[in-house]
Write a structure and sequence with these properties.
Number of domains: 2
Distance between the termini: 43 Å
Radius of gyration: 23 Å
CATH topology of the largest domain: Naphthalene 1,2-dioxygenase Alpha Subunit, Chain A, domain 1
Number of strands: 20
Bound molecules: FE2/S2 (inorganic) cluster, fe (ii) ion
CATH class of the largest domain: Alpha Beta
Strand order of the largest sheet: 13-14-15-16-17-18-12-19
């Protein structure tokens, strides 16, 4: 320890970009970009994960003012389809309007405050009717009917229009922002749309949706998934097929960051070095059951080339789509993007997932972790319906989820097992804060620094 005297930009081992360039295959420009950042090295106070007052100020000043993915457009394809998104006490009723635009209304009746629909409800309606006394609004939020209105001469249509939240869409996702004065989604997302130009997330469908309750703060949960540093201790089985130490970490804006990890190569810590065939055999590329038995490295191929070839063919056949436009790195590697505060996106085809993290109610130590798998829709024919969520309690294993690759289930159990221990350890600590690594944990620090910008903004 102590031999490096200054903030180190990266490991001296082979970087993710170097692995990709060594293939000699085409590489999209977004994977040749690097944006390292040193954001300081002060400890992150532990009270930020446990203190009720701190949590309440996050709710008041951050969750109520940031863009969050609420649902997918495929959840509400037809006029009248609705979906309820909630975070803490905030609740929005999202509905497809009669002109096909998407509107979001505060999910609280203007009579005596009842929610129109409960948390996570979805369905279809021709009007927005309160279940209590039946006041109703049309899909554009105009007051339509007040039963026995002879008794409500003071209720005017104009004043009783439903209050709205901001709604916008990108990549098939419906985003909401509870703050009507917040800047628009486009600037908030930058540079995600450019990085995702070739991935067209709108042309994917939800094949699998898992919800897992976690006994930890929402930030601890996000942080466990935005660094690859823990792989050597937590997921040693992954070191044979992915290079943890060469992972590249990028900070693009306050809201957008990335890590870029090469697959089909071993971690430098693996000794002796595996052969290409061993790498291919050991690599976890999504659901191995889709890959067939023909996982053989051909003459002149590397493990990475073989992975891309096999995956392009097998996924193309399974999902009835042409994947030839995707380069090898787009097929097999993991470039994982974070969008503040709570969304993580994996655009590449091998592990095509999206994560979301939200506090459950007003408890700083309870989080709902959602994982969806987004597969390409067929080139021809109907879009498959989105999968319904499968809910796991705090003690349930990801290996119980029907259709979820068992090896991946083990990985997520390893991750979520740590989080309970971490939250308990925060309460037991004598030390006052977390000490982070400069490069590999920069995205953790970014999360806190961006959060502080919202909390300090009056
Ligand atoms: S509370 Fe909604 S109609 Fe009475
Ligand atoms: Fe992990």
């Amino acid at each position: 320890m102590g031999k490096y005297k200054r903030p180190l930009a990266r490991s001296p081992s082979v970087s993710a970009q170097e692995h990709v360039l060594r293939d000699g295959r085409p590489v999209p420009e977004v994977f040749t970009v690097e944006s390292p950042c040193f954001l300081g090295n002060e400890d992150i106070p532990f009270f930020r994960y446990t203190d009720q007052k701190f949590f309440d100020s996050e709710m008041e000043k951050m969750w109520s003012r940031t863009w969050q993915w609420a649902c997918r457009e495929e959840h509400i394809p037809e006029v009248g389809d609705y979906y309820v998104y909630e975070v803490g006490p905030l609740s929005v009723f999202i509905v497809r309007n009669s002109d096909s635009s998407i509107r979001g209304y505060v999910n609280s009746c203007l009579h005596r405050g009842t929610k129109f629909k409960a948390a996570s409800s979805e369905g279809s309606c021709s009007e927005i009717r309160c279940p209590f006394h039946g006041w109703s609004w049309d899909l554009s939020g105009n007051l339509k009917n007040v039963p026995y209105d002879w008794d409500a001469p003071h209720v005017g249509e104009h004043e009783f229009k439903l209050p709205e939240v901001q709604v916008d869409t990108w990549g098939g996702f419906v985003f909401v922002n509870f703050d009507m004065d917040a800047a628009g989604l486009t600037g908030y997302l930058d540079p995600l749309p450019v990085h995702f130009e070739n991935f067209s997330l709108a042309d994917r469908f939800i094949e699998l949706h898992v919800e897992k309750e976690l006994d930890c703060n929402w930030k601890a949960a996000v942080e466990a998934f935005i660094e690859n540093y823990h792989t050597q201790q937590t997921h040693p089985q992954l070191l044979m097929g992915s290079d943890d130490e060469g992972t590249q970490y990028d900070v693009f804006t306050d809201h957008v960051s990335r890590f870029f990890c090469a697959f089909g190569v071993a971690s430098p810590s693996v000794d002796p070095k595996p052969t290409d065939q061993e790498l291919l055999d050991m690599t976890l590329v999504g659901d191995r059951s889709l890959l067939g038995d023909d996982l053989k490295v051909k003459a002149g191929e590397s493990a990475r080339m073989a992975m891309a070839r096999v995956l392009r063919k097998s996924l193309g056949e399974t999902y009835r789509c042409d994947l030839t436009k995707y380069t090898d790195t787009e097929m097999i590697d993991v470039s994982q993007y974070g969008l503040f505060p709570n969304m993580i996106l994996f655009p590449q085809l091998s592990l095509p997932m999206i994560y979301r993290f939200r506090p459950i109610g007003l408890d700083p130590s309870k989080t709902l972790f959602e994982l969806i798998v987004l597969r390409p829709i067929p080139d021809e024919g109907k879009r498959p319906l989105p999968a319904r969520p499968f809910r796991l309690g705090p003690n349930d294993s990801f290996t119980q989820v029907p259709g979820f690759d068992e090896n991946l289930g083990v990985v997520y159990d390893q991750d979520t097992g740590n989080l309970r221990l971490q939250q308990e350890g925060l309460a037991a600590a004598r030390k006052e804060g977390a000490t982070l690594l400069n490069y590999q944990e920069v995205r953790v620090r970014l999360l806190h620094q961006t959060l502080d910008r919202y909390l300090q903004d009056k």
